[in-house]
Amino acid sequence: MSAEVEYRCFVGGLAWATDDEALQRAFSPYGDILESKIINDRETGRSRGFGFVTFGNEKAMRDAIEAATVDTVTAVVRGILPGVVAAVKEVAGGVK
Asked: Where in the numbering of this chain does the RRM domain appear (predicted)?
């Protein structure tokens, strides 16, 4: 039985105005994006200030963790891989 590995990053500390498309645009320079998803509050529909980006391969994910610049507040990007300690990097900047 083989589990498929996903190359998914948690991205936190995002501006509330960030949407799925802005998140995808911010990370697409690093490689193929399979999915970008901002997590919204169930009751208000407003962003909770974090989301996830799923990359097509490990190199793209690692490059994004190393160099990512997103939104106007400090963000935290964590790589999530089974059996691997998550890499953490604080980033700041802006999505134009």
From this structure: 7-71
Per-residue tokens: 71: 């939104």
Structure token digits, residue 28: 């697409």
Kind plus residue range of the DSSP H or E element containing 78: strand 75-80
In the beta sheet, which residues pair with residue 80?
8
Sign of the torsion angle spanned by Cα atoms 54, 71, 31, 25: positive
User: pLDDT by residue (tens digit) across 70-85?
Assistant: 443 445 555 544 433 3
- Dump pLDDT digits (tens) for 54-70: 999 999 998 888 876 54
Is residue 1 assigned to a domain? Answer: no
Range of the structural domain that residue 52 is part of: 7-91
Cα end-to-end distance, the chain, whole Å = 44
CA atoms within a 13 Å half-sphere pointing along the CA-CB vector of 11: 37
